[in-house]
Write a structure and sequence with these properties.
alpha/beta; Rossmann fold; seven-stranded mixed β-sheet; four-stranded parallel β-sheet; globular; binds pyridoxal-5'-phosphate
């Protein structure tokens, strides 16, 4: 049908393997380093906090990694996710562009994050782990892991950045509905939390601090492992189910994208959609790949490509990535899921190799784009996803100005039903675009660890 809107795959067309871009990179990824010795990390260094299967996936160079059948069975609750042609948006914009979006908001938690929460919970369960500890910013990751934990019978403990804990009670309630325990971070339960509170009893917390707390809990208890919702190689790997499905669906539409767009916080939903297309580009295809980040936390566009810690307490390994410095405190914004000082090492590497572009937008222009999208397509984007929406709109308007019909594919990583306060603030004119403090960034970059 030439005027189809949704391109749907049957359950048995769901990919049976995740794609690992590491197998095809022209230059290998710089290794993670032990924070104490500065030497490349071995599997044993990660064993206290991750299960063996996850560590193996973190380090593998195999091109395809089989998706275990029990994981595929859970994926079937919402996957394959739809690919939608935004025909009404095209009309509203009066653009000759063909706009497609892959919609990950159909998952139970409302975003792409269960794509990795489910396999991580599965591998932990298989290895006899009883409890998972993790951090969450806005609550998307915490609710995804809480959901996955409930399916596999694991206890889940979530350190939630304090400002979100207070501002987003419904995400907290969702985690508790799935049976997880949610703690405001910094907390008095960990050394890392107590150290922060001693310095600043009113600390609002940050993702970096919450990661320190969650890692500390996992490292200090035999029955507990840690799970991370973005950044790491195995997370990017799990998310490639998005791009592999999208490729089949674009073929169903009889089209292929000229440009592929996704927002980047830690980089995983971008990796998920883009890495399969980068594989094709390495074989000669010419798809433009665009990563979009908030102007208030511009890791890829203003950060330095350097070895840095993943957390504020400096418990994690050193990884080479685009970073604003682990001590940098990004100004508050409504895109909590994009407010992280670092970027996935894989995504950073891809950017350094010139295999993708990056750009940044301020939050108010993203909300304006999201509202325009919602009024044409009906779906209210998550504030994080609105960055991808804004970029897609801009590309479509360029097509209009040039009178060219290009094909645009973007990832709508989640819906915004738990973020309506942000929309209310936007309509009331209460959203600002916080100034990015260049001097604070410089101070944080000056404090980067020296390596090698
Ligand atoms: C967490 C989140 C993001 C950012 O995380 P990535 O790892 O960069 O994908 C983007 N969109 C939504 C809806 C999220 O919940």
């Amino acid at each position: 049908m030439t005027d189809s809107v949704k391109y749907l795959l049957a359950e048995d067309q769901m990919p049976k393997a995740w794609y690992n871009l590491a197998a095809d990179l022209p230059v290998p990824l710089p290794p993670p380093l032990h924070p104490g010795t500065g030497q490349p990390l071995g599997p044993d260094d990660l064993a206290p906090i991750f299960p063996q299967a996850v560590i193996a996936q973190e380090m593998t160079s195999e091109r395809w990694v089989e998706i275990p059948e029990p994981v595929r069975e859970v994926y079937r609750l919402w996957r394959p996710s739809p690919l939608i042609r935004a025909r009404r948006l095209e009309k509203a914009l009066d653009t000759p562009a063909r706009i497609y979006f892959k919609y990950e908001g159909v998952s139970p938690a409302g975003s792409h994050k269960p794509n990795t929460a489910v396999p991580q919970a599965f591998y932990n369960k298989q290895e006899g782990v009883k409890r998972l500890s993790t951090e969450t910013g806005a609550g998307q990751w915490g609710s995804s892991l809480a959901f996955a934990g409930s399916l596999f019978g694991l206890e889940v403990e979530v350190f939630m950045v304090k400002i979100s804990y207070n501002q987003k009670p419904y995400r907290r309630a969702l985690m508790e509905t799935y049976g997880a325990r949610c703690i405001a971070s910094p907390s008095t339960l960990t050394e890392a939390g107590r150290a922060i509170l001693a310095k600043d009893p009113n600390s609002n917390g940050s993702l970096g601090i919450a990661i320190s707390e969650a890692v500390e809990v996992a490292a200090s208890r035999d029955d507990t492992k840690y799970a991370l919702g973005s950044v790491l190689n195995h997370v990017c790997l799990h998310q490639t189910v998005i791009g592999e499905e999208a490729m089949q669906q674009m073929a169903m539409a009889g089209d292929s994208p000229d440009v592929v767009i996704a927002c980047t916080g830690g980089g995983s939903n971008f990796a998920g959609l883009a890495f399969p297309y980068i594989r094709e580009n390495l074989k000669g295809a010419k798809v433009r790949i665009v990563a979009v980040e908030p102007a208030s936390c511009p890791t890829l566009t203003k950060g330095r490509y350097a070895y840095d810690f993943g957390d504020t307490g400096h418990l994690t390994p050193l990884v080479k990535m685009h970073t604003l410095g682990s001590t940098f405190m990004p100004p508050g914004s409504h895109s909590g899921g994009l407010r992280y000082h670092g970027m996935a090492p894989m995504v950073s590497h891809v950017k350094e190799l010139g295999l993708c572009d990056a750009r940044s937008y301020a939050q108010t222009e993203c909300f304006a784009a999201a509202v325009q999208f919602a009024r044409a397509e009906g779906i209210v984007p998550a504030p994080e996803s609105s960055h991808a929406v804004k970029a897609a709109l801009d590309e479509a308007l360029v097509c209009k100005a040039e009178g060219k019909s290009r094909s645009i594919l973007f990832n709508l990583s989640g819906h915004g039903h738990f973020d309506m306060q942000a929309y209310t603030d936007f309509f009331a004119g209460n959203l600002r675009d916080p100034n990015f403090a260049d001097d604070e960034l410089q101070a944080a970059l000056d404090a980067l660890p020296t390596v090698g």
